[in-house]
């Protein structure tokens, strides 16, 4: 039975397998024995390998141990967890913050805490899978609106009973497309129809906004969106996630979010490294400047080569291909040319939109990015894509 299904996936060019990265996850890494330039990491600011984060993790591990030993509500809340939540609230200028083991866990805990059966959720079609799973778990009715389609969202809001408890759910930066949710317009709709807006800023945190506070800062709507979630495993280079918002919401989540309550607290070393990451993020804005310079250089280069690109407004720059098989062929060819940029296929992205999703970091050098562009040119011409 498993074998049949695996064979089917393989025939459809949708089979996935794990690839071993045998070195630190830097801009150059060893992938299955080959030294390659990595264009597939969300470690946007290079913090995952930063000595200060490593040292913070080691010191906290020496002091508090490797594992937390229990869930947060039992005996798992250690000083690094409290420090991290205080640091997140300061960074985000909210009253409080709550840390979860991962972004996936945060979303499947947050949404069912906010809404239940009888409620209505309106979610962007390209929302992250963890948001969709959170919506399904909640038991509320889930309606999906076309990607960034404000007119459709408006009409869905207008048609519902105005008293119906309603959540609008969106990514801040869409993870597979790199474009942004129209947050000012979404806030305006939420306010007009008395709905609540849930923003997942996994890829915005540390990347978007003058101070790296995320997509809410980028659009100047922080004061109008009382809470949001984001992750620590991307630009912050560690692991875990948070909800930042009013004290009352955080206390409520401590009491209701099942993926917070019924799971072992994150390791103290990871929490301590996240505190160091937040400090670095604020102390070294030049990292973000380098990231955006690199991103602009690379996007301009890909465009000039004639590739069809998604409408990215972030360091996620997808090269649209279409059929899974062709996306796989391009990824394989790029790997042979020393570039690791895997194919993203359904069900992660809609049918007919298989792509090579590239991500740029602050740590890539100009030479590396130009080498990647040369590989894209060669592979693209060979395959008749450009
Ligand atoms: C990566 C991601 C998540 C999941 O976060 P993890 O910490 O990796 O579990 C959630 N939402 C979005 C939009 C993401 O890109």
Oligomer: single chain
Shape: globular
Low-confidence stretches: none
Helical/strand content category? alpha/beta
- How much helical structure, as a percent, in the residues? 40-55%
CATH topology of the largest domain: Aspartate Aminotransferase, domain 2
Which second-level CATH architecture of the largest domain applies?
3-Layer(aba) Sandwich
What does this structure look like?
The chain is an alpha/beta fold and 386 residues long. The chain has 2 domains: 2-38 and 285-382, Aspartate Aminotransferase, domain 1 (Alpha-Beta Complex); 51-283, Type I PLP-dependent aspartate aminotransferase-like (Major domain) (Aspartate Aminotransferase, domain 2, 3-Layer(aba) Sandwich), CATH 3.40.640. The protein contains 15 helices and 13 strands. It has helices spanning 2-11, 51-64, 72-76, 79-92, 103-114, 129-138, 150-159, 183-192, 215-219, 247-256, 258-261, 268-283, 285-305, 324-336, 366-382, and strands at 28-31, 34-38, 96-100, 120-124, 141-145, 166-171, 196-200, 228-231, 241-245, 316-322, 339-340, 343-344, 354-359. Strands 5-4-6-7 form a 4-stranded parallel β-sheet, with helices on both faces. It has a 3-stranded mixed β-sheet with strand order 1-2-11. A 3-stranded antiparallel β-sheet has the order 3-9-8, with helices on both faces. Strand 6 (166-171), helix 8 and strand 7 form a beta-alpha-beta unit. Helix 4 packs parallel to helix 12 (268-283). It is globular and about 55 Å long. The chain starts with a helix and ends with a helix. The model has no long low-confidence stretch (mean pLDDT 97). The structure holds pyridoxal-5'-phosphate (PLP). Pyridoxal-5'-phosphate binds next to helix 5.
């Amino acid at each position: 039975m498993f074998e049949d299904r695996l064979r089917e996936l393989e025939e459809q060019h949708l089979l996935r397998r794990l690839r071993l990265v045998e070195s630190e996850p830097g801009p150059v890494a060893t992938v299955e024995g080959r030294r390659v330039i990595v264009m597939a990491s969300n470690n946007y600011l290079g913090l995952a390998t930063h000595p200060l984060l490593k040292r913070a993790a080691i010191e906290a591990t020496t002091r508090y141990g490797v594992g937390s030993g229990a869930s947060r509500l039992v005996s798992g809340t250690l000083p690094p967890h409290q420090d991290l939540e205080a640091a997140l609230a300061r960074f985000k200028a909210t009253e409080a913050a709550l840390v979860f083991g991962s972004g996936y866990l945060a979303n499947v805990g947050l949404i069912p805490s906010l809404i239940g059966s009888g409620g209505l959720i309106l979610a962007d079609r390209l929302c992250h899978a963890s948001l969709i799973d959170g919506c399904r778990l909640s038991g509320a009715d889930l309606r999906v609106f076309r990607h960034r389609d404000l007119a459709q969202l408006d009409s869905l809001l207008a048609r519902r009973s105005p008293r119906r408890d309603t959540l609008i759910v969106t990514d801040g930066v869409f993870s597979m497309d790199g474009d942004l949710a129209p947050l000012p317009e979404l806030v305006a709709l939420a306010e007009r129809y008395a709905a609540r807006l849930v923003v997942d800023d996994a890829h915005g945190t540390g990347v978007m906004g003058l101070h790296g506070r995320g997509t809410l800062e980028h659009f100047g709507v922080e004061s109008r969106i009382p809470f949001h979630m984001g992750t620590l495993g991307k630009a912050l280079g560690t692991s875990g996630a948070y909800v930042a918002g009013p004290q009352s919401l955080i206390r409520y989540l401590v009491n209701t979010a099942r993926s917070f309550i019924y799971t072992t607290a994150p390791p103290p070393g990871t929490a301590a490294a996240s505190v160091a990451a937040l400090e670095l993020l604020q102390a070294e804005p030049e990292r973000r400047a380098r990231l955006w310079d690199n991103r602009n250089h690379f996007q301009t280069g890909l465009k000039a080569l004639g590739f069809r690109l998604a409408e990215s407004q972030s360091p996620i720059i997808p090269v649209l291909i279409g059929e899974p098989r062709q996306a796989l062929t391009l990824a394989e060819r790029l790997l042979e040319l020393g570039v690791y940029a895997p194919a993203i296929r359904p069900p992660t992205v809609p049918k007919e939109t298989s792509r090579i999703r590239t991500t740029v970091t602050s740590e890539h050098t100009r030479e590396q990015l130009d080498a990647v562009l040369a590989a894209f040119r060669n592979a693209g011409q060979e395959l008749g894509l450009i």
